[in-house]
Design goal:
Blueprint: E1 23-27, H1 39-45, E2 49-55, H2 57-67, E3 77-81, H3 84-87, H4 93-107, E4 113-118, H5 120-124, H6 129-140, E5 145-150, H7 160-169, E6 180-184, H8 189-202, E7 207-210, E8 225-229, H9 235-243, E9 247-248, H10 256-270, H11 275-300, E10 304-307, H12 314-325, E11 328-334, H13 339-348, E12 354-359, H14 361-371, E13 375-378, H15 380-388, E14 393-395, H16 396-401, H17 410-428
Parallel strand pairs: 1-12, 2-3, 2-4, 4-5, 6-7, 6-8, 8-9, 10-11, 10-13, 11-12, 13-14
Length: 429
Amino acid sequence: MSVLAPTPSGLALKSPGCRDAPVLKERGQREVFCGLTGIIWLHRKMPDAFFLVVGSRTCAHLLQSAAGVMIFAEPRFGTAILEEQDLAGLADAHDELDREVERLLSRRPDIRRLFLVGSCPSEVIKLDLTRAAERLTQRFAPRVAVQNYSGSGIETTFTQGEDACLASMVPDLPSTEAEQLLVVGALPDVVEDQLLGLLRDLGVPSVKVLPTRTADDELGIGPNTRFLLAQPFLGDTAAALSRRGARHIPAPFAFGEEGTTEWLRAAAIEFAVDAAVFERVTAAPRARARKAIAAAAETLCDKSIFFFPDSQLEIPLARFLARECGMRPIEVGAPFIHKGVVGSDLDLLPYGPTLSEGQDVDKQLDRCRAARPDLTVCGLGLANPLEAEGLATKWAIELVFTPVHGYEQAGDLAQLFARPLRRREALRL
Ligand code: SF4
């Protein structure tokens, strides 16, 4: 039996990583969706859940336009609209909320988990949704568990909605002494199945996922729970799990062949998987991923890239694009840089780009225009103006909505960045 090495030779850096690089911290105007957006992918992961936004017509419009054409006969999210009299304090918003929830749950026996989602208006009038969730839980338990979190744009950027949602569930999970690996984050089902299949093939004993697909899926947390984050924006959830005694396994995120291998390797080391088994399980998908990435890397190699802060995927993606596709990151902006979460990716990201945290959008636009990157990754609001100025852009939100984790998606991930460069090249001809 041979033991897996924590620092495989394949990961030797040619230059120092970015863990200790200086970070430009900005606190100005920012251009990013609010945390309500997470409902669009969370409701697909939890088919027995309902997300009730307590907000305004603006919140309802955001959700409907972000959800696009997904009009269901029985939708799994909606908005309890705070009218003017609620906002002016003339009506008891708690009574109205109770009435709406009662109406919803009597009409929809399929709902087992109800999330009351706070918004800017509910925060401004200081509507206490924690108290509302406790009151409603008492009323509807055990059929429905009612939880609350904030998706408000005052407090959250768009991927933080998922973090807040998952973190809200952790305190209510039962305790367990079982030894288990918990994969944390809402991945598309196909990706989740692939990664769980690989962990099973490696022989990791008991693998669970947060969020569970249904309320009836058993999940406990305890001192023998070790967890791997699937997404780099889950800092609050990681803290909540740690408070329950679970232990975080630091790892690069599963983007690209290298990222996926190192993510799996971190779990394999933790659960003492034999090196030969690891090699046997990962060799074929690694080779497939490398081949798929190579097809796109021809377009990406030596091209410069500039990340505006948006989804918090920026650092792991910059690591993937620099190391596996040969791109040159100029600036890597992220809404937050949590070294406890993205430290392993920072270690691997070659030293050189400006790391920026937070945003002052005008200053950052000036830096971007001065750098004239080959590709700019940014939010929808900035993409069109930058395209008009002759810069190729990639919408950051697409990276959250598209399956991009794991070996089988590594080629698609690289192609997502190659496509805008090819399109711009074709327009030039
Ligand atoms: S939560 Fe705030 S930022 Fe988000 S849609 Fe509602 S009002 Fe707008």
